[in-house]
Structure formats: C-alpha cells, structure tokens
Amino acid sequence: MTPALRLEHVTAHLGARTFDYDLALEGPQIVAITGASGSGKSTLFHLIAGFQEPSGGSISMNGAEVTGIAPGKRPLTYIFQDHNLFAHLDVQKNVALGISPTLTLSAGDSDAISRALTDVGLSGFEKRMTQALSGGEKQRVAFARALVRRRPFLLLDEAFASLDEELRHQMGDLLTRLQRQNAMMVLMISHDRREVVRIADQVVEIDDGRVVYCGNPTSWAGLGKYFA
Ligand SMILES: Nc1ncnc2c1ncn2[C@@H]1O[C@H](COP(=O)(O)OP(=O)(O)OP(=O)(O)O)[C@@H](O)[C@H]1O
C-alpha cells in the first residue's frame, strides 16, 4: 500500500543544524508530531508544506511527488498558532478566503461555506468580525476554512497552544470528528501528553532533526521522557 505521506531522506541545513527526515505514514489518521523544543518539528512541517526547500531527498503525498511544487499547489492546508484570520473581515469572508483569495464565489461556494460553519458549530456567525471572537471560535473559523479547501492533508502547527485546557479538549474532539467525517490526514505538532494519548492514532517523535519514533502512542517511551 502506498503511504499517504512519505519522506525519503529529506535533508535541510539551517544555520549550523542538519535535518534528515525519513518517514512513512498511512492515512487517513491523526498523527501527533512531538519532541523537545528545537528538535525540528516546525522544520519538518515547513518541508512538507514547501515553505522550506530540501537540499536532498523526496516528499510524496498520496503517491504523488510534491518536492519542488509551490506551497499553494500542495494538497494541504496549514493552520498556524494564530490561525491567520483577518480582523477586518467577517467570519464568512475569512472562510471564503480558503476557496478564493479574491473572494470571488459561486452560489455553490456560498453553500459550502454555510455547511462548513454549521459543521464547526458556528452557524449564524457569518457576519461577525473575527476580532470579536473568542479563542475557541477563532479556532472553529480556521477549521471551517480548512474544510472548504477540501485538501486531504491538514497540518496544525501548535494551533491549540493559546487555548486553555477545557477548550483544547473541545477542539480536540471537534478535530477528531472532522477528521473522521472528511477522511483527512491530520498532522499536529503537540506538546500536550493528554492530547496525544486521547486523539492521536500515531505519534512521530523528532529528536535532533530526525524521526526517532513512529508508532502507537501507548507504546511510545517518550510519554514518560517528555511529559513525566
Ligand atoms: N532559518 C533558520 N536558520 C537557522 N536555524 C534555524 C532556522 N530555522 C530553524 N532553525 C533552528 O533549527 C532548530 C529546529 O527548529 P524548529 O523550529 O524546527 O524546532 P521545533 O521542534 O519546532 O521547536 P519548538 O518546539 O521550540 O517550536 C532550532 O534550533 C532552530 O533555532
């Protein structure tokens, strides 16, 4: 079976650091990317997303080589910690940006936006400005934008980091539901042991720019090592 995501000795040299990632993941599932601060989690994401070009190796997603392809053309959505919402636009337009950067929408697109907002529990929020939303609501808008993009991979770069524990729990449940409903491959950088155990199907541990574990969360030694 072709792995959903394959990195074959993907190397990068940043400053004095060398990164060399080798990884094969089946999909769709939720994969937590963990490891100590500075180990290379974000660098891995930047390589997968195409923000950082590798100096060697190859990356394939759902069997298609993506190395050298522009970030916007890769089959993924990237959610950053601040969610990349535009404060001067309302919720509907923020979600619409996932479909069209110029906000040119068909009737079908408008329906898709309404469905996505309902899916994330924000029906009726269309005309609200995002600057007035709570942290959890902003997270939901970011999920709705990801849903309308309909890309098979979703990368969450510490997207829940600014939320309190209760909200992280809720957002974890919402993410799990959306992942199952839409059969997405979710990769999430996480520093939260409970989150990893509760929602991740697999764990990838990064240490010094390399993958040192890829497998089941419950048999992962790093649970004690990083989160004792
Ligand atoms: N453009 C760059 N130039 C030089 N060094 C870099 C560059 N980008 C990243 N690094 C270094 O590479 C290492 C890995 O960075 P990365 O952001 O991938 O770590 P991380 O595991 O995501 O860390 P954290 O959990 O703290 O966010 C760090 O030591 C960082 O300072």
Question: What can you see in these coordinates?
Answer:
The structure is a single chain. With 228 residues, the chain is of the alpha/beta class. The chain has a domain at 88-150. It has 7 helices and 10 strands. The protein has helices spanning 41-49, 91-96, 107-119, 135-149, 165-182, 193-199, 222-227; strands spanning 5-14, 17-25, 30-34, 56-61, 64-65, 76-79, 153-157, 185-189, 202-207, 210-215. A hairpin with a 2-residue loop joins strand 9 (202-207) and strand 10 (210-215). The structure holds adenosine-5'-triphosphate. Keywords: ATP-binding, Cell inner membrane, Cell membrane, Membrane, Nucleotide-binding, Translocase, Transport. It holds the Pfam family ABC_tran. InterPro entries: AAA+_ATPase, ABC_SmlMolc_Importer, ABC_transporter-like_ATP-bd, ABC_transporter-like_CS, P-loop_NTPase. Belongs to the ABC transporter superfamily.
What is the overall pLDDT average? 92
Beta-strand percent range? 25-35%
| Rg over C-alpha atoms, rounded to the nearest angstrom | 18 Å
- Share in helix: 25-40%
Sequence of secondary-structure elements: EEEHEEEHHHEHEHEEH
Main sheet: strand order:
6-7-8-3-9-10
**Secondary structure tally, helices:** 7
Uncertain runs are: none
Family: Belongs to the ABC transporter superfamily.
Protein name: ATP-binding cassette domain-containing protein
GO molecular function: ATP binding; ATP hydrolysis activity
Domain ABC transporter: 5-226
